[in-house]
Amino acid sequence: MMSEMGKKRNIKIFSAVIAAIFVFSVAGLAIMQTGNPVNAAPSSNIGVVDTSKIITPDNQDAVAAQKQLQQAGEDMQKQFEQQSAGMDDQQKQQLFQKMQGELATKRQEIFKGIKDKVDTAVSDVAKTKGLSLVVDKSVVLYGGTDITDQVAKELNKNSGSSSSDSSANSSSSSDSSSSSNQ
Predict the structure, then answer these.
(1) Which of 10, 72, 137, 180 has the fewest CB atoms lying closer than 10 Å?
(2) Nearest to 149 by CA among 131, 125, 172, 116
(3) Quick check: pTM over 0.85?
């Protein structure tokens, strides 16, 4: 009877040791697969861009777009004053709403060019760095590879060659000569 109880006790101890080894091996495997999240962020294939730092008020494209928008607003105001002469208040309100819509459309057209240039620069940098996703930094709490500086450099490089062309078309010759000297 004693030997039978000894066997049962040995089986229980052996089972407990096997169970402990299994639990520790599963826990170790789980830790190894998840890795350390602090070390995982730099090797991420997700890029982040702070667009507020890319398009600054002194950016040539932004300045040109602002000038175009201001000119369009002034033109619309003159047009409104000419067309609204002799109209009653309701007709003026309708004309104002129509012109406001036209100005909003013009604004979208003007800033679409800047957005396209930024998107191209982001795409070029992302391809160079092997990133599969790039998001705005304002929506990221943690992680990702910050490519803001590289995108700004790429944007300045690309707009440096085309800004003299666009400023010559939309500005006077003195403005285009000063932008081509830069």
Answers:
(1) 10
(2) 125
(3) no
